[in-house]
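Quick illustration for those who missed Monday's session on complexes.
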Amino acid sequence: MKGYGVIKTDQPGWLEKERPVAGPLDAIIRPTVIAPCSSDTHFMHGGAGPMENTILGHEAVGEVVETGELVRNFKPGDKVVIPCVTPDWTSKYTQLNGKRNAHDHGMWGSFKLVAAKEGTFAEFFHVNMADANLVNLPDDVAPEAALMTVDMMSTGFHAVELADVGFGETVAVIGIGPVGLMVTAGAQLKGAGRIIVVGTRPNCVKIAREYGATDVVSYKDGDIVKQVKDLVGGGVDKAIIAGGNAATLTQAISMVKPGGAVASINYYDTADTFSIPAPVWGLGMSDIDIRCGFCPGGAARIEKLLNLIQYGRVDPAKLITHRFEGFDKIEDAFLLMDKKTPDLIKPAVFIKW
Ligand code: NDP
Ligand code: ZN
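Prediction with NDP bound:
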């Protein structure tokens, strides 16, 4: 089968691979809508270490073409939403950690597409434990909206969960790419009062306001800590990192009040080192929690996110700024994501077989 991915670090391209085979509990899917993620471009540039001969992609909505003999809830022809994280639900980590289910047999273990097998930018891809990890696409949810639940919404909302945003709180959202925009929407749904976002791209700023941002700060206009503290004297209750670099963690801690929390779902580079001056963190006695996480997966979570779309609580399809048609256009969409033109938030590719 054909797929698009990393030939070697910094060299994306088309690859020829064996079609995957379903084990007894698994399913084989044909993608019908896919989206590249910032993480796919990080992988291609070696941001998770050297990578070669791997099909990329972990965001997809598709159609079941084959199921293993023990799969009960799905059959060929079913239209499904595929979480980008598909835990092994027999693992003790998964059993004990509930919503933080991304690390089934070790760090990022539940992130199997791309990391442990070929990704979704392929004619076919494999999903482990289909009954626990696949979700039927509801008739009244547009496939492109459903596609935004599998990573963007799940990751963004996870950051809001990690920060434990409460009614009336003041929240800073650092980074308003597609993930930060979902953080913004999630913070509003959780009842945040003031939401201060950090970012510059005009269409992201516009959508951030639609998702509930009350104030916008640009990191290009100087120190964001000073700008946020000029707005909120004592600092914010929660700061959530969805963009920036290793130094952003120090900035986030610096803008949070004692007793508050910093949550990060950002992807730092393998070469990064965190260096936090002790006074910033109250010499270790600030009662400021630092929490980080990876996108949670599984069917039950994605069903809940789809429910928010079905009942009009959030429209994540607003993130899609560029639409492509045809399997071969995966390349154009991926290269656009890599170039990240100022007007881009999220591209999606619609595939007819
Ligand atoms: P984008 O690159 O689209 O957005 C990044 C945002 O950060 C933009 O708003 C950008 O501003 C802003 N930014 C850039 N530099 C700085 C800076 N120095 N200080 C403050 N803000 C800055 O990324 P995505 O939304 O696609 O993803 C966000 C992060 O989440 C990525 O690192 C991605 O890899 C990661 N990710 C993590 C997952 C997880 O499970 N943990 C899952 C999916 C993604 P501007 O408006 O100027 O562009
Ligand atoms: Zn991703």
